[in-house]
Amino acid sequence: MMQKADKVQLVIDTLEHHFPETPIPLDHKDPYTLLIAVLLSAQSTDAGVNKVTPILFERADNPYDMVKLTVEEIRSIIRPVGLSPAKSKNIHALSQILIDQYQGIVPESLEDLESLPGVGHKTASVVVSQAFGVPAFPVDTHIQRLMYRWTLSTGKNVVQTERDAKRLFPRELWNKLHLQIIFFGRAFCPARGHDPNECPLCSKIGRKSLFK
């Protein structure tokens, strides 16, 4: 049986081989537009978000312009990504908070970000890692699934999976690695219709019982 340290190194090497470059999948130009894009991506696709953000950011790409729009105006633009009633309210509200409490600047700390409307731990982790280079390991359901398949986590919940990932992988790799896992999952390790024998990682260390 492969030792856990060997599994971890195999994952690192395989991901680096297949995805040496990790472009951020959400289109943005600064921390504020990234924050809005990540917030919009909840229960939506990156491609779907990238279709509406150019329209939204043409109207308002900073909190000062965003609060000039009504919640209904924001909602009408972002409606295609889903959950638009809540997301539009949160975008307007957090933009006002950024103006009132942070001089219109997106804060760099997880705690401050998580205090903003509609910003959970995963969203905050994505922003600090991708906008500010702070080591973080944002975990979504895709990463949770793959960490379980690769026998690197119990898969009980995203909190436990994040804890396991941070414990197993070197801190300096976190920001790149979480994107590599997402890209790998899309290309080789989907949730459905997956053949573990064809997967570069599941064929070596996956939980074969999952696919019987």
Polypeptide structure, described:
This protein has 212 residues and is an all-alpha fold. The chain folds into 2 domains: 4-22 and 137-211, Endonuclease Iii, domain 2 (Orthogonal Bundle); 31-132, Hypothetical protein, domain 2 (Endonuclease III, domain 1), CATH 1.10.340.30. Helix 5 (71-78) packs across helix 6 and helix 9 (141-149) crosses helix 10 (158-168). The chain has 12 helices and no strands. It has helices at residues 4-18, 31-40, 46-59, 63-66, 71-78, 84-102, 110-114, 121-132, 141-149, 158-168, 174-188, 202-205. It starts with a helix and ends in a 7-residue tail after the last helix.
What is this entry, summarized?
The protein has 212 residues and is an all-alpha fold. It has helices spanning 4-18, 31-40, 46-59, 63-66, 71-78, 84-102, 110-114, 121-132, 141-149, 158-168, 174-188, 202-205.
Distinctive features:
Endonuclease Iii, domain 2; Endonuclease III, domain 1; 12 helices; 212 residues; mainly alpha
Oligomer: single chain
Strand content: under 5%
Outline the low-pLDDT stretches.
none
Q: Would you tell me the structural class of the helices and strands?
A: mainly alpha
Quick one: CATH class of the largest domain? Mainly Alpha
- Report the order of strands and helices: HHHHHHHHHHHH
CATH topology of the largest domain: Endonuclease III, domain 1
Give the helix level as a range of percent.
Answer: 55-70%
